[in-house]
Amino acid sequence: MRILGVASASAALALGVAGNALACSIKDFSAAATCDGNGKGIITVTDTDPSGKEALVTVFLEEKGADVRQVGTEQKLVGTKDGATVSFSEDWVPGAQYRVHIDVPSVEKVRNKDLPILTTKGPACTASESESPAPSASPKPSESAPADASSDTPEDATGPSEPETSAAPATPGDNQPSAAAGESNLAETGANSNTPMIAGIAGAFVLVGGGAVYFGMRRRGASKAS
């Protein structure tokens, strides 16, 4: 009987130690401020309780020791030996403080417990380069260049340049009259016609005729006198 009692006591002690080793503790929980793959801030709570007790996790933003607002909604977390996690979306900034509340109803010593205040560190989360606006959204210089060139340099346009070059005035050194101008002046003055020659011949005929008439009249008068 004595041997049986010793064996029973040893078994109970071993079971007690094992039970204590598997018991849920507030030390099984931890919290951290991190960033997800899309550059958004999150508060992550991890539970490494191997007993698999269900816990209720709530996160609050703190300011001067008081709750400012609740982050998201209450979430359930069942711990594992390797660690189970839940995340709360929060665009946290460096130096912000958060209170993480843990409640395990089935374990008296982990009912309505708070983790140490979480103070965020490091730079805030930013969106990745792949999610940043594409540079092609802004107008390309090559697209606006033709419009600017056409508006700023009208001399390159084919329409206005032709009349300007065709109507260009003669240079000051070119004092020779054009063919049209020369022809019109000669037509007006008669310098390029045979009018002087005809007038000279007509005058000669007038003089010869006058002389003939004169001599004829003298001869007629002389014959009458004789």
What is the CA-atom radius of gyration, in angstroms?
Answer: 61 Å
CATH class of one domain: Mainly Beta
| SSE string | HEEEEEEEEHHHH
> Per CATH, which architecture of one domain?
Sandwich
Largest sheet: 5 strands, antiparallel
The unreliable regions are 11-21, 153-159, 177-191
Identify the overall geometry: rod-shaped
Portion of residues within helices? 25-40%
Total beta strands: 8
Q: How many angstroms does the end-to-end distance come to?
A: 221 Å
Might you state the CATH topology name of one domain? Answer: Immunoglobulin-like
Topology (elements, then pairings):
Layout: H1 2-22, E1 29-35, E2 41-47, E3 54-63, E4 66-78, E5 84-89, E6 97-103, E7 113-114, E8 118-119, H2 141-152, H3 158-166, H4 179-189, H5 195-225
Antiparallel strand pairs: 1-2, 2-5, 3-4, 3-6, 6-7, 6-8
Describe the structure.
With 226 residues, this protein is of the alpha+beta class. The protein has a domain at 23-119: Interleukin-17 receptor A/B, fibronectin-III-like domain 2 (Immunoglobulin-like). The chain contains 5 helices and 8 strands, in the order αββββββββαααα. The strands form 2 sheets. Strands 3, 4, 6, 7 and 8 form a 5-stranded antiparallel beta sheet that branches. The longest helix has 31 residues, at 195-225. The protein is rod-shaped, with a radius of gyration of 61 Å.
Give descriptors for this structure:
single chain; 226 residues; alpha+beta; Immunoglobulin-like; five-stranded antiparallel beta sheet; three-stranded antiparallel beta sheet; 5 helices; rod-shaped
